[in-house]
Amino acid sequence: MACAVLLAAGCSGGGGGSGAEPSEEGRSTAGTGPSRGAAPAKGSVKVEETVTTGLESPWGLAPLSDGDLLVSLRDTGKILRVEADSGKKTELGTVPGVEPGGEGGLLGIAVPPDGEQAGSWVYAYFTSASDNRIVRMLYDDKKEPGDQLGAPDVILKGIPKGRLHNGGRIAFGPDKMLYAGTGESGDGRLAQDKDSLGGKILRMTPEGEPPGHGNPESGSVVYSWGHRNVQGLAWDADKRLWASEFGQDTWDELNLIEPGKNYGWPDAEGRSDGKRYRDPVEQWRTAEASPSGVAVARGSVWMAGLRGERLWRIPLKGGEPAAEPQSFLKGKYGRLRTVVADPGTGGGGLWLVTSETDGRGSPEKGDDRILRLEVR
Questions:
Q1: Distance between CA 239 and CA 233 in Å, rounded?
Q2: Do 295 and 282 touch, CB atoms closer than 8 A?
Q3: For residue 305, what is the enclosing H or E element?
Q4: How far apart are CA 214 and CA 175, in angstroms?
């Protein structure tokens, strides 16, 4: 099959990622091993260009090796290819079985990193009539637009669905495993139920199977639990996994993810006194964030805010903040859904997707759009 759907080497499909080789166990190295120096306390953001406009309920974004982008449209179930130079949009096709409603629909997408799986698959997380599930589809860009996706191969099903809290972010890690952030579908009890796929971060092979090593329990794809609604996944240069999470009424979270750890929901929202739960690295009032995608660039985590309508920068020193978070673009582009590292900039660029047409924004002419940012 001839198609250019490779991720640039070492970059994950969900934003962030690094060129580092996977660790021996393919696990997060949070809290262990050497760390890069601290990121500067103050950074900057410059909007270089608007890549494309007129997108309807965009959600997931996956950069390709030639610089183009794949974007998923939540409510129509379509996947588009966007030419980075011209902004031209080409429809790959519509993912069959997508049942949009509330926060559900066609959500995250990913393409494999360089390796034996590269060049043929597009992965998608979506809400069906019965559950949330992850599929992969053959992609052939030599076929006619609208007919470039093959039949979906379901690699994981049974993730609880609801009108709210469907999770949806998927990304390939530096260990070449596929990770997924799920929601508890409005039933907080599922987040503490290790037999449920809801309210978890999942780690699996590209075929959807439990890995042979690295997960807390053999035979399970569950990697961490106690989550309310995971929306962003990204890895730093030391292969630490960072995840953003919607709070309920008080605190949104940025978490440093370690396998087998419990992140507290529904017993804890934000930092708590409970010794059995992992506290977030940073937390925000829900009006300031309501976070969605995250990416890592220039030694900082960058977090897109929906209700907060701003882009947050969290400078890192190892697994801790190096300074207070900064916010950028407040109110300028409305709700911000997805942020992904731009592999073509040597680590200093981001792609940013707005979310004004998702039913909760105030769309203006040109919404929704993809922006290209230079960050420092």
A1: 12
A2: no
A3: strand 300-305
A4: 10
Phi, then psi, of 273 in degrees rounded to 5: -90, 0
Q: 325-336 pLDDT, tens per residue?
A: 999 999 999 999
Instruction: Tell me the pLDDT tens digit for each residue of 326-374.
Output: 999 999 999 999 999 998 887 789 999 999 999 999 999 999 999 999 9
Three-state DSSP string of the chain: CCCCCCCCCCCCCCCCCCCCCCCCCCCCCCCCCCCCCCCCCCCCEEEEEEEECCCCCEEEEEECCCCCEEEEECCCCEEEEECCCCCCEEEEEECCCCCCECCECEEEEECCCCCCCCCCEEEEEEECCCCEEEEEEEECCCCCCCCCECCCEEEEEEECCCCCCCCCEEEECCCCCEEEECECCCCHHHHHCCCCCCCEEEEECCCCCCCCCCCCCCCCCEEEECCCEEEEEEECCCCCEEEEECCCCCEEEEEEECCCCECCCCCCCCCCCCCCCCCCCEEEECCCCCEEEEEEECCEEEEEECCCCCEEEEEEECCEECCCCEEECCCCCCCEEEEEECHHHCCCEEEEEECCCCCCCCCCCCCCCEEEEEEC
Say how far residue 158 (Cα) sits from the centre of its chain.
20
Give residues with Cβ within 8 angstroms of 263, minimum separation 6. 224, 225, 226, 227, 245, 253, 255, 277, 278, 280
Residue 345: is it exposed, middle or buried by C-beta count within 10 angstroms (0-12/13-18/19+)?
A: middle
